[in-house]
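Appendix B. Extra example for self-study. Work through it before the problem class; the solution is given directly after the inputs so you can check yourself.
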Amino acid sequence: MGSPKTIMTVDDAATIRKMISMTLKGAGHEVMEAVDGAAALDALKDRPVDLIISDVNMPNMDGIEMTRQLRKTATHHRTPIILLTTESAQEIKDKGRAAGATGWIVKPFKQEQLLGVLAKLFP
Amino acid sequence: MNDSLQKQLINDLLIESFEGLDRYDAHLLALEQGQSGTDVWNDIFRAIHTIKGTSGCLGLGKIEKVAHAGENLLDLLRSGSLQPDQGMISTLLRLSDALREMLRTLEAQGVEGSTDFSPLLTALQDHITPGPVAQPEASTPVEPAGFGLFDDDTADTVALKSAAPEANESSGGFGFFDAPPSSYAAASGGTGSKPAANAPGTKPAATAAPSAEIHRSAASDSAIRVDVSQLDKLMNLVGELVLARNQIVQKTVGYNDTSLTTAAQRLNIITSELQEGVMKTRMQPIGNVWSKFPRIVRDVAHELGKEVRLEMSGKDTELDRTIIEAIKDPLIHIVRNSIDHGLEGPEGRRQAGKPAEGLLSLRAFHEGGQVNIEIADDGAGINIVRVKNKAVEKGLLSADQALRMSDREALNLIFLPGFSTAAQVTNLSGRGVGMDVVKTNIEKIGGSVDLSSETGVGTTMKIKIPLTLAIIPALVVTAGGERFAIPQVSLLELVRVEREQAEKTIEYIYGAPVYRLRGQLLPLAFLKKELKLSESTHSEDATNIVVLQADGRQFGLIVDEINDTEEIVVKPLGKHLKGITCFSGATIMGDGRVALILDVLGLAQHANLIPEVNEQKQTSGRKQEESRDDRQTLLVFNVGTNTRMAIPLSMVARLEEIARNKVEKSAGQEVVQYRGQLLSLVPVAQFIPEAAGEVDAQADQDTMHVIVYTEQGRSIGLVVGQISDIVEESLAVRRDSRRQGVLGSAVIQGRVTDLLDASGVIRSFDPSFFETSLPAASNPEPVLS
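Solution. Structure tokens for the complete assembly:
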């Protein structure tokens, strides 16, 4: 794996957030956290990151809407956004694709899968 | 994932899930109450969804499976494809119970447990109507974990792959939507032709100031979780610091060094502030306990077929967490009791002209350094007669005691051990815990319970508890050369009696010392005697009486010296000393020595100033000659020439002066027309042997004094001589069953006064009078206690 990345992880579930951030930090990356789409938008304003990993179903603003909003900004016009999905996977995938997301990870996932996505994104 | 991380994450999952489930329950109950909104459904859905996702990631298959089943149903509910009904909500509440059970097992044993939840899974499934509404995920079982980039699909094959996306993914379950980022920028055209990650302008910024930014975003939830044991440790340390501070402050008193005194003062102030600050971190809103109540109320109400609306105010009132823990169960019990015994069924309420839905309101607020909690219902109120009957039936008191008892005293009977008013013990309130345990538990933490009730209007229970238990203000006293701390909450006043006076003012009634305090008799106890301390060399030029309150009664404790008031840090006593009821704990004084903290209630019981709980059962025996402390309002009057007698004012319905010429004769009895009825007149003097032979001093007067006694709507008049006074006395009553017409005697206003056995006299006059009232009627003789 190449250089350390700065990664934003967005999830209302603190445990998932911690799991992702521990995994990524363990692999040498810098991790930011946000509790929902709105908080993430706020934190990511004029703040470039290398990757955003976000849950879909969240209060205040869900992952799909957040993706849509981020794509409108200059800073995150093309930041890779990976959505974590569980329910009705195909529908979410279609919505995610339409909103401009880069990829998806199906929950539940293992640490290796998470790192696998990074390996694919940053070869 | 290594073990410690897994453990940590499971711990997080537990906290997060319990919180989520509490919210889930609260929302469901609100929905059942008719509130609605898609937001609420989303929140409910999300709680289960989060548990499912997180438990899945942590390899907790069983929890995931159950949560998943619930999620399917909830998904249909939140999208509006299904309309909720009560059965559905009950099933959904069972779901949270099941999840809680597994989480608890996980917490305690590290595994998910072996309970079979397939009936629940079936029930959840049954609510999902088969047919046009697809089961979103039931048909696509949880895929093996995976990920992917959409870009792996080329645009024109997307539709095809959509049908079976996983089949194409060797790694399963993931994908990319478009080009991977390295080619994303190029493919999308955009501003730069280089991949974003390599764009010169953005990259350095991305790594330049990350840490500050990270802090800011993480701080968006500005609260952190701290292990409770950590706080307990801090509290302990602060306690030690307070002690050290006390020692330093005390030691510096003798010094003339200004800089040392100043430093000590600063230390004093800072320690106090630190103490307050640490105390605050341990504070929790009472809402944490109350959040469980909507569910409890719902379940209890459903089971009993009652309709109950729960209102809560003052949820944010904060209390030390140890106190929260201590009052949790008592509160739950009281709430259950209120619904079970307090509120009537819908039919009963309608008949009483009240709305079918009963109201149970909880209120919490700070007042005078204490926390007040009120639990009120608008039910039928407590039926005093039933309470009395029940107590008599259970042998907790005699029929005669019941007759003489004031309403307020009777209300407190429900706090007696072994008392339960429910006609049959339901499985709800009667869980082996009575109100006595509730009361004991609250008193154990220095609180008090007060009950008031109005027939037909409702019952209110008021609980007062201290803010914290760890550090309390106390009075330090000396007895027999030892120092003792007395918690300030039980302290009423201090009385100092000079030696010359002491001999006169401390009297003995049947061997029990009493002090006349503002016209009232205060039973006394000598601390030295109670604790069997050696006589000190202390020269007594005065007697120090500490007036204390325990269990609603006052008594005086005589000590050698009264030292000071001090903030003391309560240290619990070791297990082997727990059996000693006179002490509630220990503390370390300013000079480093240990002082025991007196348990005022225990001490009063030890000194026989307050009947111990078990003793009360024995009082139904007949020939007890022990003196008992009874605080009552009494009517004092004369009978015959000069026999002084008293009767509890609670037994007096009215006092009348009746003109002698209005008296008529009927069936050999004297009667008078009174409020449209015939009132029989009982010449009391004839029933008192001492007065019987005496000439009625009032006989030549135009009017006579009549005490009207009313029982169950029937009245009878007791003709007495002069009415002399109404007094409130702490009575040390000497029971005496051998004298006719007399219950016993006591010292009232410095004179020996007989207590009139009103019911006994009435019964000898007219045996039929009590026939329709209390069980006393079946007992021809007065039962004495």
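Self-check: Chain B touches chain A through 71 residues (CB under 8 Å). If your reasoning did not lead you there, revisit section 3.
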